[in-house]
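Amino Acid Chain and Its Fold in Token Form
===========================================
Scope: a single protein chain, as residues and as a discrete description of its fold.
Amino acid sequence: labelled as such and written in the usual single-letter residue code.
Position: the record begins directly beneath this header, with no further notes in between.
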Amino acid sequence: MNKKFLATAVAFGVLGSYTAASWWFGGRTEDYFKEYLQSQPWRDDLEIVQRDYVRGVFSSRADTVLRMNMQGPGGQLELIFSQEISHGPLPLARLRRGNVAPVLALADSRLSLRLSEGAEAGPARKLFDNMVVEDHTVVHLDGRAASVFSSPAWQDTIESEQGPVTFSWEGFAGEGSYDSATATVTARGKGPGMQMTQGEGSFKVHGLSSQFEARIGESGVALGTFTSSMASMELVAAGKEEHRFQGTNLSLSGTTSESGETVAASQRLELESLHFDDWRGGPLRYELELRNIHSPTLLSIQKELRSLGAKSRQGDEASLAGGGELPALLLQLLARSPEIDIKSMSLETADGAVQAQALLTVAGDRTSAAPFNPLLLLNALSLQVSFGADETLLAKTAKTWALEQLQKGGEESGGAPLPEAELEVQAARLGRESLARLMQNGLLRLEDGKFQSSITLAEGRLQVNGAEIPLQQFFKK
């Protein structure tokens, strides 16, 4: 056989096999892309309003428009997801870099924001035009995908009715993954921060970091974990009086898990320090748990809220009357005996600390007649609340409140303002008297230099520091 003919035949055979393989891999990639969109944990919060997928032999292009089920400034927000996909098993882009490991596909994506069609043109539209995320993803043969993404830095000045606003975004970068076997999405990223200024006012955030792992559970609810942190935040409100708020080292984390048809969620927040003008405090800590939340009812509530939101945007006020199906669904949720547990909430200040805890449980079998009698609903609730604050802190807080009332009363009366020293004396006296009345009425007790209070609601009976308070007085006409 002629060697030249043989070489040509082999070359055509290889090319034909490569072409056929690329076409077949392109089909698998299209199926993978569709499955990916349908398996996302946020699928119920996004409506696919456009999906175009053009498959070629060696590459494909996908253009997807996802409308968010929320109202942004000026209109509904839409995500524009554009992808250039190179088919496996050996995409040319990898071959050019000397990488011969076979993959299902490579995808270069661009994610951008825009306001939905018909939304008002204004400052928000220009702002969203700058918000872009670029991503490079490798889809492996086993269905796992790994990506790196970034949001480039930008700065722009946008005109508004209150004057020009300057935005400065310092960028964001990270990596993510997707496992098609478990439909689990993970991502982590960080960025220097952002800044917004208008006149003398400003809002600054520095040291952003976030990561999450999410999947759709058997019940249909999004499950997983997330953590977010921020090194510092500053808000300067300029007007007749300038006010400044600062916070440092904010961390927020949470988890959602399921057991059968119920889900549980937890959330923790910590802020190392916070300043408001001359006031200083921190750390601030907060921990919350939700338990026994019925998944099917929760999904129905989320669906009804989206429906009510759509009707509100359409101006359908008649359908919004009474909240649609929402009251009945909320009652169904209560019938499943949910629990809300504020395990801890505390704040430390230079004048002392304040702490609180609360646990609310529902006896679901007692809620059936609750819509017709609020007292019957209270019979189904069990509440335990404890509160404590250092004496110095609560006394100073009461004095500050009294001082504001005196100043407000003086302004309304139109009389001559009292001297500052006299205001201070009167405010201290009124503050002490207000705390004394609370103690006389049994709402507060002073023990070991701390004001404390405990509230219990059980079997339709409300007790504050052990003294019963008739509930009927709250429902008098």
Notes: DSSP finds nine helices and 22 strands in the chain. The two ends are 106 Å apart (CA to CA).
